[in-house]
Amino acid sequence: MPLFSHRLSHSLPVSSSSSSSSHSYSSKPLKPLKPAVSFPITVFPVICLVFGLAGTIFAVSVLRRPIPLPIFRCGNAEDTFRSFYSASNSRQLGDNGGLVDRPKLLGFVGIQTGFGSADRRAALRATWFSSDPDGLLRLEQATGLAFRFVIGRTKDAKKIGQLRKEVDKYKDFMLIDAEEEYANLPYKTLAFFKAAFALFEADYYVKADDDIYLRPDRLATLLAKERKHSQTYIGCMKKGPVITDPKLKWYEISGHLLGNEYFQHAYGPIYVLSAEVVASLATARNNSLRMFSNEDVTIGSWMLAMNVQHEDNRALCDPRCTPTSIAVWDIPKCSGLCNPATRLKELHAIDMCSKSPTLPPDDR
């Protein structure tokens, strides 16, 4: 029986028919009964208070914590520049007033570099390539061209650590999923075009080496010129005998497939592919494209197979600074500039290289 009803039963008067005497009710007042206090009812408000305070503290900490950094990636490829700008609301990219997943550009320029080329990158940042993210953004806005250093992967932890410091400082890299070594250049180049196409919507994609002096404004003028053919391959075109001597640097292992002379193809230090061409490369199945020993020959073979328009432009391989030069390097002595870390600064000190006006498209 419940405690409350049990006590009541003992407080009420009781009569008996067998008793001859009468009993009077007690005049002593009954004490008020104290309700039984349940332990859970007492603790519940305290628990609610604790949870409420914890929720408030968590909400405040979340609001004060920096927003997690969005990473702009395609598979294992990453654009460190846009990842940096996404961390600040005051810095914005894209026509929609903020970051866009695949910005629209006139051209994307990937400066191919390696783990042992920190001195070249330093020289480039001291000359035509901007040394800070804001400057790189201004260059993009002025020319319609985005510029990134492109580098692959390595298992060397020391090299990765050094690169990470440089990435954190300059934010001007595209990291791609390709082994970084000279013998792997054709594979790295294909990985570059696939990543660039996935991360940027550009009319043209430019592959350039880190040992040439480039004029971004003149390159933009070249790319802005109207063309009748949508599948375009622009560069300094060449032909020559196939290298069959294993002792030479450019020895072609599959030379027996090529015959005595190479087909027409662009020099490797810089060339341009139109968006339609890169779209075809980006959707190609792995191992479906023939890889030769040399990267420029490999690209040239793909261009033949795709029936693209070859556009020979000698302004992309000028050995000196001229009113029309777009890219300057020491052709034919070197594949790029000889002693590039020094030569880049020497060329930049020449007004014809760094300060001469850009010619209008009709004068090219």
Write structural notes for this entry.
With 364 residues, the protein is an alpha/beta fold. The chain has a domain at 78-92 and 103-234 and 267-355: Alpha-Beta Complex (Spore Coat Polysaccharide Biosynthesis Protein SpsA, Chain A), CATH 3.90.550.50. The chain is 36% helix and 20% strand. The protein has helices spanning 3-11, 39-64, 80-85, 118-125, 133-143, 157-170, 185-199, 216-224, 275-282, 295-305, 340-348, 351-354, and strands at residues 73-74, 77-79, 104-112, 145-153, 173-179, 201-209, 213-214, 232-241, 261-274, 309-312, 327-328. The strands form 2 sheets. The protein has a 9-stranded mixed β-sheet, with helices on both faces. Strands 7-11 form a two-stranded antiparallel sheet. Helix 7 (185-199) crosses helix 9. The protein starts with a helix and ends in a 10-residue tail after the last helix. Residues 1-27, 62-71 and 89-98 have low confidence and may be disordered.
Judged by helices, strands and strand pairing, the structural class is: alpha/beta
Structural Rg = 37 Å
Strand order of the largest sheet: 1-2-5-4-3-6-9-8-10
Identify the CATH architecture of the domain at 78-92 and 103-234 and 267-355. Answer: Alpha-Beta Complex
| Total DSSP helices | 12
Care to count the β-strands? 11
Q: What characterizes the major β-sheet?
A: 9 strands, mixed
How far apart, in Å, are the first and last alpha carbons? 106 Å
Percentage of residues in helical conformation: 25-40%
CATH class (first level) name of the domain at 78-92 and 103-234 and 267-355 = Alpha Beta
Estimate the global geometry from the Cα principal axes. globular
- Fold-level CATH name of the domain at 78-92 and 103-234 and 267-355: Spore Coat Polysaccharide Biosynthesis Protein SpsA, Chain A
- Contiguous uncertain segments of 5+ residues: 1-27, 62-71, 89-98
Mean pLDDT: 82
User: What order do the helices and strands follow?
Assistant: HHEEHEHHEHEHEEHEEHHEEHH
How much of the sequence is in beta strands?
15-25%
